[in-house]
Amino acid sequence: MAEPTEVFIQGLTRDGKTFRPSDWAERLAGTMSSFRPDGPVGGGPGAFIGYSPYCVPRIVAGVKGVVVSASLRELEPMAWDFVLNFARDNDLVVVAHPDAGAA
User: Which of 12, 14, 52, 63 has the most C-beta neighbours closer than 10 Å?
Assistant: First the structure.
């Protein structure tokens, strides 16, 4: 079976509890915001704040979480390890993103 192109880190622990704090997904995605296809966004008047396309907070089937692109693993393996270790350390459920590969 092929590796998923995206994973969804759910805001649920393996024992079914809602992960706290409530803004954890936005915080995690914000931490990863500098990882972009063309590198980090520079400062100055044209700079903006936004999430990386590789790590985006989402609600899927009523569950808050973060969608992480497998492309991050190739771009920056340490960043990929960071998000997956965050999930593991906090006992969060990680699944293949249900919409990955959908047109």
Answer: 52
Cα-based angle 18, 72, 34 (whole degrees, multiple of 5)? 85
CB atoms within 10 A of CB 81: 13
Outline where DSSP puts E strands in the chain: 6-13, 55-60, 63-69, 92-96
* CA 40 to each of CA 2, 34, 36, 45, 96: distance values in angstroms, whole numbers, following the listed order: 30, 5, 6, 15, 27
Tokens of 44: 């100055």
Cβ burial, residue 42 (10 Å; 0-12/13-18/19+):
exposed
Q: Hey, what are 71's tokens? A: 């492309």
